[in-house]
Specification:
single chain, 414 residues, mainly alpha, two-stranded antiparallel sheet, 21 helices, 1% strand
């Protein structure tokens, strides 16, 4: 008690009051700093836009199709995840304006400029695709080439239709979706400076993945059961190594003379095939088919997403482009089937062509060829159309690239 009285009687009460005041202010500052940090932490939630949520849903659908339905997973999965990446508030994956007014370059934009804006990724991918393709079925039956050309009808039909809604360069870029060839669509849209590159890329790759859903109903619509049951015997014809080596070289030269703008597309595709067929670069051929193609496909898929930002993607024009792309795919299929039916009018009874193989002339290799084969087996378990349909399918790969070159010759610089 004596100590208590002595201590507090001699204490400086002014100092105690000042100390209590300082501690109170500090507590308030800590509370304000906490609230400020809390606000910074959650300010992205307040920046959310309903259109971002829509793009998340679109990305989720692409991921679902890739994983659950196994539809082009190497493309749709990176595209779907990339669509989510670029539609996060203040996403660091794409170029954004910082608070200090400086432009912060996003990683995906760097990839886009390095690989898509200069068409590097699509062209390198073509080397891998060329190394995968065996032109043997086509070389053993060269007349199948004509079906690949006929199945490009949808491109030019859609060009006429799209020109009613879009400037001619954009219409031409949209029409090439019908090539069923993603790299060709990217190159053509880039060279024609289309403002709808994102929608065109998404449509091209999405419809390629949906070929097993899109084609069968329209093939059945255009054919009778009797026509689908037509058998086409296949006789194995030996293709010499010299023929296999000369084929990519000759195709490149012919394509260059007919459509000079297609030289880079056709040339890289045929270069990949030459690596496969030359017989002295087996390790490079295997690398191109697997490691190179897979790596570029991953980068290509996720980089495409830079053009899937909600501000540019969620627009009426995008829906129209998706619709026109579907029209192009449908009329490619119908054009190939109807051309085969037309030929059957002039062919003798024992030489009739199963019209379904005409549908394999689109460039969705090898899915379209396999679909036709499966549909033939469904009608007749002994009807083996695989070699015929694959031959038409690889011819469609060449024809679609040449069609892209023709589009560029017609419209580039206009």
């Amino acid at each position: 008690m004596i100590w208590y009285n002595t201590y507090y009687n001699g204490a400086d009460w002014g100092f105690i009051k000042q100390f209590v005041l300082i501690m109170t202010i500090k507590r308030r500052r800590i509370k304000m700093d906490f609230l400020k940090n809390f606000e910074i932490l959650y300010e992205n939630f307040f920046a959310l836009d309903w259109r971002m949520l829509v793009m998340w849903a679109i990305g989720g659908i692409l991921i679902f199709l890739a994983i659950k339905k196994e539809m082009e997973p190497t493309l749709l999965l990176p595209m779907g995840f990339g669509a989510i990446l670029v539609n996060l508030p203040f996403s660091g994956a794409i170029t954004q304006m910082a608070e200090n007014g400086e432009l912060e370059i996003g990683a995906l934009d760097v990839l886009f400029k390095a690989g898509i804006a200069n068409e590097l990724f699509p062209l390198i991918l073509f080397i891998g695709i060329g190394a995968m393709i065996d032109f043997g079925p086509l070389l053993s039956n060269p007349k199948l080439m004509i079906f690949g050309a006929a199945a490009q009808f949808g491109i030019f039909f859609t060009l006429c239709l799209a020109s009613m809604f879009f400037p001619i360069n954009d219409a031409a870029s949209i029409a090439i979706i019908g090539a069923a060839d993603g790299p060709t669509s990217i190159v053509v849209a880039n060279k024609l400076n289309s403002q709808y590159l994102g929608a065109i890329m998404v449509a091209a790759y999405s419809y390629m993945a949906l070929v097993p859903i899109i084609q069968p109903p329209f093939i059945k619509l255009c054919t009778t059961k009797k026509e689908r049951m037509i058998r086409m015997p296949y006789s194995q014809t030996e293709v010499t190594k010299l023929t296999r080596i000369l084929f990519p070289i000759i195709i490149t030269i012919v394509a260059g003379l007919v459509a000079p703008a297609s030289v880079s597309l056709v040339g890289f595709l045929m270069f990949g095939n030459l690596i496969r067929e030359c017989g002295v670069l087996n390790s490079l051929s295997e690398t191109a088919q697997k490691v190179l193609a897979n790596l570029i496909t991953i980068f290509l898929g996720i980089t495409i997403a830079t053009k899937m930002h909600y501000e540019s993607f969620l627009a009426p024009d995008t829906l129209l482009i998706l619709g026109l792309g579907l029209v192009a795919f449908i009329f490619d299929t119908v054009g190939g089937v109807m051309f085969a039916k037309l030929l059957n009018v002039f062919l003798p009874k024992g030489k009739k062509i199963n019209p379904m193989i005409g549908a394999a002339g689109i460039s969705a290799f090898p899915m379209s060829g396999r679909i036709v084969h499966k549909m033939g087996l469904a009608e007749d378990p002994q009807n083996f159309l695989l070699m015929h349909s694959i031959g038409v399918n690889v011819s469609g790969q060449i024809a679609s690239v040449i069609a892209g070159g023709l589009i560029l010759n017609f419209f580039m610089g206009k």
